[in-house]
Amino acid sequence: MANPEVSNPNDFKVVTFKNNSHFDFTPALGCMYDGRPIFGTTGESIKVGESVVLPYHVGNLVAKNLAKAVINGQAPAKDEAGIPTGVPLWSEDSLEEMKQSFLTEMYTEEKPTTMSETDKLMAKVEEYKSMVDKLVPKSEMDKVEGAPQESPEAPVTYSDKSEVIAELEKRGIAFNARLSKANLEKLLA
Prior knowledge:
The relative contact order is 0.11. The protein folds into two domains: 9-108, no CATH class; 152-189. It has helices at residues 56-74, 92-101, 117-135, 138-143, 161-171, 181-188; strands at 13-18, 32-33, 36-37, 51-55, 103-108. The chain is α+β, with helices and mostly antiparallel strands and 189 residues long. It has a three-stranded antiparallel beta sheet. Strands 2-3 form a two-stranded antiparallel sheet. Helices cover 39% and strands 11% of the residues.
C-alpha cells in the first residue's frame, strides 16, 4: 500500500514563481493558497518581475490564479453593444500554457523517512515540553499540582548544638553527644 503522504510525485518539488505580468499580484487578485495570502519580499503582494520560491503545490495554484487574472484583464467579456459574448475566455490548454510561463522547477527535495506513530507522538511530547519551557515561567510550574518539587538548594544551618542533636534524633541517626557541633552536622550530610 502506498504511503498517502508521499503519493503525489510533485509533493517534494520546489519551484520559482515569477510575476511576469504587468501588475502587482495581490491576495485580492488570487495570490493565495488555501485562504492564506502569499507575499513577496514587500509583504503586500508579489511585485511585477519579483520571484518567490514556493513548494510545487502552492506555486502551481498561485501561477494558475495569476494566469486567470491576466486573461481576464485582456479579454472583453462583452461585445461593442455591451452584450455578453458567451465565449470562454480561456481553454484548459491556454490556461496551462500561461501558468507554466510563471513557473520554473528548481529541484526536488529528498523524501523524508517515514516515522512510526510512536516516533510522531514522542516528537510531539518534546515539542510540547519545549513550548511549556518557553512560555511558562519555572515558578508557575512549581505551583502546578502534581509537578515535581525541587529540593532546597541552600544547606540548612543550625544555630546551636541542640538543634543538630534534635535533627539527628528526628532522622534516627546514631551519634555521640560529646562530639562538637561541626562533627554532628557532618552526620546529617
